Every structure is written in structure tokens, then in C-alpha cells.
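User: I'm putting together a small comparison set for a docking exercise, and I want a reference complex before I start. The sequence is below, and the ligand is dinuclear copper ion. Could you produce the 3D structure with the ligand included, as C-alpha cells?
Assistant: Of course. I'll restate your input first, then give the C-alpha cells for the complex.
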Amino acid sequence: MIRTTKFAMGLAAGVVTLLVAGCGGGTPIGGNGDAASAVYVAPGDYDEFYFFTSGGFSGHLGVYGLPSGRLLKQVPIFSQWAENGWGYSEETKAMLETSYGFVPWGDSHHPQLSQTDGVIDGRWLFINENNTPRIARIDLTTFETVEIIEIPHSAGNHASPFVTQNTEYTVAATRFSVPTPQADVPIDSYKENFSGMLSFVKVADNGRMSIAFQILVPGYNYDLSHSGKGPSHGWSFFTSYNTEQANTLLEVNASQNDKDYIAAVNWMRAEECVANGQGEQWTSNYVHNYFNDQHIAVSDMENGTTVITPATCSDMVYYLPTPKSPHGVNVDPSGLLIVAGGKLAAVVTVHSFTKMIEAIENEDFIGEVEGIPILRYESILAGEVENPGLGPLHTEFDGRGYAYTSAFISSEIVKWSLETFEVVDRIPAYYSIGHLSIPGGDTREPWGKWVIALNKTTKDRYLPTGPELTHSAQLIDISGDKMRLLLEFPTVGEPHYAQALPASLIKDKQVRIYPLDENHHPRATKTEADARVEREGRNVRVYMTAIRTHFMPDNIEGVQVGDSVFFHVTNLEQDWDVPHGFAITGANTSELLLMPGETRTMVWLPTRIGVYPFYCTDFCSALHQEMQGYVRVSPRGSSVPISFNTP
Ligand code: CUA
């Protein structure tokens, strides 16, 4: 990990000045008197943009409004979420299944909105899980995770889930190379036995994901990705570091080479090779989770993927030499410039797609690794941005001819011209900026109003909260010549990356209720007259309804110690934003939160005799406090029969 101290302090004195400015103990930086009005959204008014941030190690997604920075929702994805029973209720547990079994935690990194013709279309949001490699899809009409697919033969799914121009694919690459397929080998046999994998996950017209093919590549660390657009549509680019292939103390050992590589992948060529049968069928067990038409998550164990290698499929992968341990790779709106953030490099490298194609045609190679030709740096270079800040990481674009690069070590955003590659403006960020985001800033048509800095730590910027301080985002106006800081707001989890879209794109498509007559849950109870309790051996099934302001039934007897009680609760409401909750004493799980028209199930294992209350956990009306009931629990073998009240 890069720390300011050793690295930056050894550099020019000007840097130190910048650092001081960047963590100024509450000093407003770049502020302006009318900044407040630029972000003020009056009570009752809507924000202009939705802003989606990764929840990092929370495993979730944050949804904010811009320009206000108001938190609207957290969407649970890779981690259990007690607030609404995600990963706890019987209908959602399967979403967290993997080939390793039930994994209740994940590390979400990069939200990526679906695109059509290189423009954000508002259908879905994809997000990767870094730790146990997975990609999730969130439906932007319900703000619910509807599908999670595991990526086999991968480890550390960081270069993911960046989409191609028409969302043909979402990608996934190995951050930590491993023996592929997995094998019991000495760790120091890394160079002989470890590989990386670049996976292309097909996205069907209805959003459904499937692993189309995987490309076996040398054992480097594949870090980030973006796909081509316009003229470069059909290509995807992946940064790599650790071309040294070190397997210990990477901070030094993976920082030796002057240049690492960007892997340029011609995925249309890969499709040809797969169609020609040049792929190999590998045994690959991975789990694919999705909601079925009953709105119940199911888990399929999938077997087998098609693996192709650059050696058997020529003209598919090329290496672009890139200084130095490149992190981000970004393609400008024209699709012709490929910008690399070499985090230890003194310049920002900009490759030319046109020159890359020429160099490939001229076979202007300086070598080859495992069937991958290495192009000549000088032949593919469009330009180098001088003085781009220290530790350049990521670049986004405003659609008006400028690029914005985040510099981690010097804690700033640097604006430069895509024509002259000259820096034209810079603004300090807080210690320390990671990603940055312009709405649509990695697409063909950015909405270049603002750039949002996503900061790792924000010493002195907020009220202290013990050893851990909040993460934060900074909203910066980029509509004029000079960048202007407007707002800072705390973010939940770690906001690795974020994307935004105009609210008008999805606001009117929001699902308000689940229609009861379309509720196909096999244990749904659609009228109070159908509410009932049934014993099936040691399982007791409670078919329960919830409506303002009672449960039916709300008096249940005949349950015994040692039973498993299944509360199948259906919310009969058909009005927007009238959820009910359900909780019962001693349940070893979270509450249920039921959207209108929805059925969800909690399993309760009574261990003691007595009478136990249950109640609605979501404040639903003036008589919410009356929304309660009782279950009587008798000893095992008791003669108390199952009974319940009826309407
Ligand atoms: Cu139903 Cu509170």
C-alpha cells in the first residue's frame, strides 16, 4: 500500500505544499460563496441525478441524490442485511450461495451501469465482488439485487464488472493470480504454476448473465478494465501489475519493472475462436443465483466453462507496455484514446487505438509472452501528460475535450486536454482520493456537470467518531474553466467507485407494488380467509397475512418446543411504500420486511415453553403499535392442538 510519508516526502517540495493544502484541518478548499445554492435541493424537490457508490467492505451499494449528497437507500448485495432480511429470509438466502457454500459477506467495488450504444440506458447496475469472485445485477426498477453469478478460476475479482458498449458482456479478471485450475503446489512455484483469467460474462437481452468464455493469461495481477467504444468497440482493456511475478512483499517486489502491461483483448476475435471450437472445455463448478418467477432466489450449480488461450487463438490478446504498475485504464468518449494511471509513474500514459491497430498490422512487436505479442511503446503512444500529480489512478471525461485524473499521493484532481495533453487545471482533494466519477464519464456521452472525488480517508473533515473516520465524497463543479468545490458528504462503506445517471432516466419506471394477483409464491396467502396454521410432523407452517393494522392469524396455539415454525407472511397491501415487518422473540435470524404484495418466510425455532409475542417492525400507520400477536409454545408431546383465530 502506498503511504504518503516515505514515498511522497522524498519528492519535490511543491508536493509537500500540496499535501498540506489537501488535509487542512477543516479549512474550506476551493470553496465559493454561492456553492451552497448550487447544491441546495429544497425540501420536497427531487435531486437531478442518482449517484450509486460501492459499499466496499459492507458488500452493498449506496444510492444518493446529486447535487444534494442525500443518502436515499442502501441496496444489499453480497452481505446479509438485517434491515430487510436480505440473506436471512428463506426467499433470499440462496443469493449468497457460492461453490464454497453460504458466504454471508462480500467486498463490493465497482458499480457499472448498463449501456446501449455506449450511453447509459438505466436498465441495470452491475457490481463486482472482490473476495469470493462474483458479479451481481441490480434491477433499477426495484433497486433489488436480482442475480449473482460466481466467476470460477479467478481470485480477487477486481477488474470487473466493466461493460461493453451494448452491454454484450460484463468482464471479470483475476487480481491475484493462482494455480489455474487450482492445485496443491508450493507458493514459490508462482512463475511456473500461477495464471490469470479474463472472463467474459454474456448479458442476455433480459439481463440474465452466463459465462461465455474465459481467456487464460500469464500470472500477473489484473487490476482494472474498460471496454472500447465507437471505433474501438469489440476490444476490452485490462491493466496488469506484478509482471515481475512476485509472490511475496509485492510493495517492493512488484515495483521493479519500468513498464507493466495493459492487455488489449479483441473479444470479437475470441468469439470467433470459440465458435471455431478452439476453446477447451474445463471442469468448472460455480454457482448462479437468481430470482425465479415466484420471486424466490434459487441457486444453480453450473458445470464447465470454455477456456481459450492466446497461443491457440492468435490475434486475440496484445500487451501494451505501460509505466508503471498501472491501476486504472479508461477509454475516452471518442473511443480512440486509452488512458492509463500508472500509480508509480511520473506521467499519465495515453495510448492511441489507431496506432495500436497499425502496430498490430505491421507486427511492430518487441517480444511475446505465452503467445501474446508485446507492442512497441513508442509506436502506440498518443501522448504523455506531464506533471499529472503523484500516483495517478483513474481518469474520467467531461465530453467537452477534457480528462480528469485522480492522483492518490498528491491528493488532487488534475484536468488535462485530450488534444494537447497539457494540464489546464488542478484542485486539491482530501487525503486521499481513489476513484473519481463524472456522470456518464466513462461512456460516449458524459453529462459533464460535476466530478465527484471518492476519498479514502478524511482526517479532520468531519466530527471524529472514534478510531475510524467516515469516508467521503466531494462534489466539484466542472462546468467552467476552473474546477470549483461545491459540497462534501460522508459515504457509507468504502466508496471505491461510483456512477451516476439522470433521475429522469429511471424515476418514472419505479415499481410501486408487487401485484398480489402476480404473486406466484407457492406459500402465498392472498386473503385473510385463507390464513391458517398446519402441522407437518415437526414443521409448523403459518400462512399469515399482514395488512394495516393486524396480522391474521394473530393468536396461534399448538406449537411445541423443538418445532420449526415457518412464518410465510404475505403483505396484502397494494399501496406504494406500505411495507410491514415481522419479528418474534428469540428468532435466530433478522426480521422480515415485506413489500406490498410480497411473501417472505422466517423460520423460528422455539426452545422454551411460554407465550411469545410477534409484532410489525415497520411503522405502517397510526395503529402500528397495535399490530402484534402471540404464539403459545407447549412442551414437546403436549396435547394442545394446533389452533388459530380466523377473521
Ligand atoms: Cu405494519 Cu407497522
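The pocket of dinuclear copper ion is lined by residues 580, 616, 618-620, 624, 627 (CB under 6 Å). The chain has a mean pLDDT of 93.
User: Thanks, that's exactly what I needed.
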